[in-house]
From TrEMBL:
GO molecular function, one term: glycosyltransferase activity
Domain Glycosyltransferase subfamily 4-like N-terminal, chain residue ranges per copy: 23-180
Residue ranges of every copy of the Glycosyl transferase family domain listed in the record: 190-330
InterPro entries registered for this protein in UniProt: Glyco_trans_1 (IPR001296), Glyco_trans_4-like_N (IPR028098), Glycosyltransferase_grp1 (IPR050194)
Protein name in the entry: Glycosyl transferase family 1
Alphabetical list of Pfam families matching this protein: Glyco_transf_4, Glycos_transf_1
Keywords for the protein's UniProt record, in alphabetical order: Glycosyltransferase, Transferase
Length: 362
């Protein structure tokens, strides 16, 4: 298939797709939309209000509504959940009705159950990327009696195996990053940690690790949980631990590329770990807990892995990783974290789905 495709990308209705990014998902969708557009496809993005206007694609408006005072008083229905459900219900109804002839394919990156539950209502085929483990709301949508009208791709073998008992084998498309945007840095004498500042990312363990290894630590990322930051992170800041703020991509690249080693410390089974790929692309070796999909990215030439939650082990890993050649880290990113390869693989899946859908409709 050589004709450009008309693709609807469904992203988060809560977090705007713009710099500085709220998290890895927003960064991923931002760059992916650009890559698809550069490849000649027409991309329309469904994302939260305030999403970047410099994206080379159209943006589907997120429908909002004003809750009544009576509704706001209901303690069982937090306002953000109601707004999110309304947004996805609205966009799926639009795709089934007024937008039904506008797209060849819908690519679902949301973590909400409604796109899956309503996939049968839209005429275009749907591909859903599994960015998370089988969360209860997503799993119940897949388990509907008639089944779900979506194909699936997983971001890592680990995530694919988690979903296998529920939906069977799925395609594997590891996440990629724009290697032209992430440049190899010179390195330095400090450790770096980047990501959302929330409990599951384990920045407290990174702080303990850096001190155990005798390394200064510089931290960057959005404060996703203010109470956690104020109670756990802020008291640890000082001469040896610095919070550098919520940075734009080019600023983060400079910070990560100037580090001797990047610490990756999830306390949950990280499906992929985009910060790992970003560190390697910056030429910075990685010391990480061997959780989730991270061992699929880091090899002996580009970093060291430690037993999850083992601060002493990660401190040893950090010192070993810091001595590795930076060229090897960058080379690993080029062979295993390529944005171009990821995009090409997704387009192949798109073409297969659209071709099969046209055969069925003929």
């Amino acid at each position: 298939m050589t004709a450009p495709l008309r693709i609807a990308l469904l992203a988060s209705s809560r977090h705007a797709v713009r710099q500085p990014f709220a998290g890895g998902m927003e960064s991923f969708v931002f760059e992916f939309a650009r890559a698809l557009t550069s490849a000649g496809h027409r991309v329309t993005l469904f994302a939260a209000p305030g999403s970047s206007t410099d994206l080379p694609c159209d943006v589907l408006p997120v429908h909002t509504f004003d809750m009544s005072e009576e509704s706001r008083r209901d303690p069982l229905a937090p306002e953000w959940i109601v707004h999110e459900t309304h947004a996805y219900l609205s966009v799926m109804m639009d795709l089934a009705d007024t937008l039904r002839d506008d797209f060849d394919l819908v690519h679902n990156h949301s973590l909400h159950y409604l796109p899956l539950a309503m996939a049968r209502s839209i005429p275009a085929p749907m591909l859903t990327t599994l960015h998370t483990p089988p969360l209860p709301w997503l799993e119940q949508a897949v388990a509907l009696p008639r089944g779900v009208a979506s194909s699936f791709a997983a971001v890592s073998d680990f995530t694919a195996e988690q979903w296998r008992p529920i939906i069977g084998p799925v395609s594997l498309v590891p996440n990629g990053i724009d290697l032209d945007a992430w440049r190899r840095g010179p390195g330095g004498d400090y450790a770096v940690w980047s990501g959302r500042l929330v409990p599951e990312k384990g920045v407290a363990l990174a702080i303990a690790t850096a001190r155990r290894a005798g390394l200064r630590l510089r931290i960057a990322g959005p404060v996703g949980d203010p109470a956690y930051f104020d109670q756990v992170v802020r008291p640890e800041l000082g001469d040896d631990v610095e919070y550098c703020g919520h940075l734009r991509q080019e600023e983060l690249n400079e910070l990560v590329g100037g580090a001797a080693v990047a610490l990756v410390t999830p306390v949950w089974e990280e499906p992929f770990g985009l910060v790992t790929a970003e560190a390697l692309a910056s030429g910075t070796p990685v010391a990480a807990f061997a959780r989730g999909g991270i061992p699929e990215i880091v090899d002996e030439d580009s970093g060291r892995l430690a037993t999850p939650d083992d601060v002493d082990g990660l401190a040893r890993a950090a010192l070993e990783a810091a001595a590795l050649p930076r060229d090897a880290a960058r080379a690993r990113a080029e062979t295993h974290c390529s944005h171009a390869v990821m995009t090409e693989r997704y387009v192949e899946l798109y073409e297969d789905l659209v071709r099969d859908d046209r055969r069925v409709s003929a």
